[in-house]
């Protein structure tokens, strides 16, 4: 599945460091750290019916990532919230919106890796687009990628940074194989996550997801675990092998971009009956849809 250009986004305005710019003029310097070294952190956030979903969780993760990367000029959560509100207001956006929030280490005085070359403050970008959940709800297919997801031995996957190359390489493998996403293993061979989403499986009524040893601890993943608790569905995080995923009754992915999505095939093995009609997932999904309506930071306009 390949996203298409949405004409609703033809004239959107993008926030860059306080300025609202038409998408055609929304550009950053070639000296910016994100161009120079992917040296930035980011969040994908959704707006449902006049409310920004899980905003505090996203801002906390953005701040944690920036702190772990030793950014010295981190805008406050209030500043970032104001930037989000300003962007949504400028575009008159209230529903069906996905926001790509990026905070880079900022512009450098000359090209180079050294963060001491960053003497102009950070760069904050808010890109809000009309975008409905992107994955096919009738079920997606996964293939196992050869490239592994980083464990804390390398660059810790808990940092939500813009160095997405290993995940992009996994996605390329999936594209070549005609699958929707690449399933990535950790350094020990356990399933970590797919290239842009977390993975869950259900076996005999129990919900399982991989330990956050080598995956992004996704906000949607965390919410699904909370919903399972609320609905008294037994749930655990543990090391899970590929063989267990192949033989699962249900498999689904979670992420802000695609919400909850059933998986019908992994490496050619049909999951469950192969129809992607999953009872436990549907129960959780129903409650997730309610959360998106009930919760969220109300837009002040
Ligand atoms: N894993 C990876 C690698 C991701 O990039 C994302 C999306 N940011 C996710 C999982 C899902 O995380 P979330 O539920 O916070 O969107």
Which features would summarize this protein structure in a list?
D-amino Acid Aminotransferase, Chain A, domain 2; alpha+beta; D-amino Acid Aminotransferase, Chain A, domain 1; 2 domains; 27% strand; 9-stranded mixed sheet; 301 residues; 7 helices; single chain
3D architecture notes:
By secondary structure, the chain is an alpha+beta fold. It folds into two domains: 7-130, 2-Layer Sandwich (D-amino Acid Aminotransferase, Chain A, domain 1), CATH 3.30.470; 140-292, D-amino Acid Aminotransferase, Chain A, domain 2 (Alpha-Beta Barrel). It has helices at 33-37, 55-68, 77-90, 165-177, 219-230, 242-246, 279-294, and strands spanning 13-16, 19-22, 40-48, 51-52, 97-104, 123-130, 140-144, 181-185, 191-194, 198-203, 206-210, 235-238, 250-255, 259-266, 269-270, 297-298. The strands form two sheets. Strands 7, 8, 9, 10, 11, 12, 13, 14 and 15 form a nine-stranded mixed sheet that branches. The radius of gyration is 19 Å and the shape is globular. It starts with 12 loop residues before the first strand and ends with a strand. The mean pLDDT is 97. Bound molecules: 4'-deoxy-4'-aminopyridoxal-5'-phosphate. 4'-deoxy-4'-aminopyridoxal-5'-phosphate binds next to helix 5 and strand 13.
Question: Domains counted in the coordinates: how many?
Answer: 2
CATH topology of the largest domain: D-amino Acid Aminotransferase, Chain A, domain 2
**The CATH class of the largest domain:** Alpha Beta
Task: Please compute the radius of gyration using only Cα atoms.
Answer: 19 Å
Largest sheet, in brief, is: 9 strands, mixed
């Amino acid at each position: 599945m390949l996203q298409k250009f949405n004409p609703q986004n033809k004239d959107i305005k993008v926030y860059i460091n306080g300025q609202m710019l038409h998408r055609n003029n929304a550009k950053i310097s070639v000296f910016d750290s994100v161009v120079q070294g992917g040296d930035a952190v980011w969040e994908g956030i959704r707006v449902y019916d006049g409310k920004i979903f899980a905003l505090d969780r996203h801002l906390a993760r953005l701040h944690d990532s920036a702190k772990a990367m030793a950014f010295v000029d981190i805008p406050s959560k209030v500043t970032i919230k104001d930037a989000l509100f300003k962007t949504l207001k400028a575009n008159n956006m209230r529903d069906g919106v996905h926001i790509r929030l990026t905070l880079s280490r900022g512009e450098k005085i000359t090209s180079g890796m050294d963060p001491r070359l960053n003497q102009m403050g950070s760069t904050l970008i808010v890109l809000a687009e009309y975008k409905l959940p992107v994955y096919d709800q009738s079920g997606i297919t996964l293939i196992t990628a050869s490239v592994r997801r980083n464990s804390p031995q390398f660059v810790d996957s808990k940092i939500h940074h813009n160095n997405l190359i290993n995940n992009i390489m996994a996605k390329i493998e999936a594209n070549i194989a005609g699958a929707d996403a690449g399933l990535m293993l950790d350094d020990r061979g356990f399933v970590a996550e797919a290239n842009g989403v977390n993975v869950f499986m259900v076996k005999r009524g129990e919900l399982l997801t991989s330990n956050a040893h080598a995956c992004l601890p996704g906000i949607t993943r965390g919410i699904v675990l909370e919903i399972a608790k609320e609905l008294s569905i037994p749930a655990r995080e543990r090391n899970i092998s590929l063989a267990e995923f192949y033989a699962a009754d249900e498999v689904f992915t979670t992420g802000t971009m695609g919400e909850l999505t059933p998986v019908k095939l992994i490496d050619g093995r049909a999951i469950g009956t192969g129809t992607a009609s999953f009872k436990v997932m549907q129960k959780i999904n129903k409650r997730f849809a309610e959360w998106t309506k009930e919760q969220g930071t109300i837009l002040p306009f």
